[in-house]
Each structure stands twice: as structure tokens, then as C-alpha cells.
Design goal:
The protein is an alpha/beta fold. The chain has helices spanning 14-25, 44-54, 56-67, 82-93, 133-145, 172-188, and strands at residues 2-6, 29-31, 75-80, 99-103, 119-126, 149-156. It has a single domain (2-188), classed as Rossmann fold, CATH 3.40.50.1820. A 6-stranded parallel beta sheet has the order 2-1-3-4-5-6, sandwiched between helices. Helix 5 links the parallel strand 5 (119-126) and strand 6. The longest helix is centred in the last third of the chain and has 17 residues, at 172-188.
Length: 189
């Protein structure tokens, strides 16, 4: 499986590289674009300020350019939080996308978005301040209307970025459960 894995607002941290290594050990080819050009952040607020300074259009341009060398392949788009938002946008715009793995985040869905049964798996904390129940319900319904085949996994008591051992949100049990399910999802594609 060819996977493009996008980082969160914290930047391309060791946890993202470790996740890519975990995916490679399972037999997947993984690239981890650095949308922040080497900058990492200690807080989500710093990362979101940097993201806002870059701008949504530029961030997406960088993501498209990072994925472009692999466009001949049927890609699985994946990402953490902000990176999940980016991955979702790219996957919904790529008619050849093979799958979408969202960790800790989602994004708005264009009313014109359309897929032909795109397999999508979402893993989020419950509750999650960035992915509220109302938002997730609306997102799920919109993805269904767009034609996606969506699975949602919620992890009670986990923090927002619970798969990153370098952050206070880390929850080892939820993280390992997420990776078990996510690897099974990728194997099914």
C-alpha cells in the first residue's frame, strides 16, 4: 500500500516518523511530507498560528505537490489532526484514491464531493474538543452522501492527539487499539 501521511499542527514530530515506521514494518510504502518546512511546535496554539500564517491554500498547495510524485499509484491518504483534514481534502479530490485513514481529525466536505465507495476510517477521542459529537454526526452524514464507506472509532477518555507519546494527550491503550484497527483497515484495501 502506498500511503501519504500528513503531520498535525505540531509539525513533523518524532511520533509521525514512528507511525510511518510502524506502517513500513507492516509492509506499506509511506511518505511523510513536511508541510511546515522543518518547523515543529511545542503547543497546538503555536502550530495553529503557524498554519494560519501559511494559509489554507498554501498548505494544500504544498500537500498536493508532496503527493504529486506518487500520483501514478492509487494512494491511501492519512493524517493526524490537521494532517487528517489535509488528507481528507486530497482524498476527496483524487478519483483514484484507494483509502483515507483519519487520526484525530476531519474537515469540511464540499457539497459537490463525490466518491465511489471510498473506504474511510476515522479514529478520535471521546470527547474531543476539536471533533464534537454534533460535528462528527454531520460529518458522517455528509461523507455518506458523498459516497464514502465510513467507519468511526471513538476512544473514551483519551486526549485529542492520544497516539503521540511525546504529548500530554498520549494514551497507550487507545493508541495501540487504534494501530491494530488501522493496520487491519489498510490490509483490507
Amino acid at each position: 500500500m502506498n500511503i501519504v501521511l500528513f503531520h498535525s499542527a505540531y509539525g513533523l514530530r518524532p511520533a509521525v516518523r514512528d507511525a510511518a515506521d510502524r506502517l513500513r514494518a507492516a509492509g506499506h510504502e509511506v511518505v511523510t511530507p513536511d508541510l511546515f518546512e522543518g518547523r515543529t511546535f511545542d503547543t497546538v496554539e503555536e502550530g495553529m498560528t503557524a498554519k494560519d500564517g501559511i494559509g489554507k491554500d498554501e498548505l494544500l498547495r504544498r500537500a498536493v505537490l508532496a503527493a504529486a510524485p506518487y500520483s501514478e499509484r492509487r494512494l491511501v491518504y492519512a493524517g493526524f489532526s490537521l494532517g487528517a483534514s489535509v488528507a481528507q481534502t486530497l482524498a476527496l479530490g483524487d478519483e483514484k484514491a484507494r483509502g483515507l485513514l483519519l487520526l484525530h481529525g476531519t474537515s469540511d466536505i464540499a457539497a459537490t464531493a463525490s466518491t465511489d465507495g471510498l473506504p474511510v476510517q476515522l479514529h478520535v477521542a471521546e470527547p474531543d474538543p476539536f471533533e464534537t459529537d454534533d460535528w462528527l454526526t454531520a460529518w458522517y452524514l455528509q461523507m455518506g452522501r458523498a459516497g464514502a464507506d465510513v467507519e468511526v472509532y471513538r476512544y473514551a477518555g483519551a486526549g485529542h492527539l492520544y497516539t503521540d507519546p511525546g504529548l500530554p494527550d498520549y494514551d497507550e491503550e487507545a493508541a495501540e487499539a487504534t494501530w491494530r484497527v488501522a493496520l487491519g483497515f489498510l490490509d483490507s484495501l
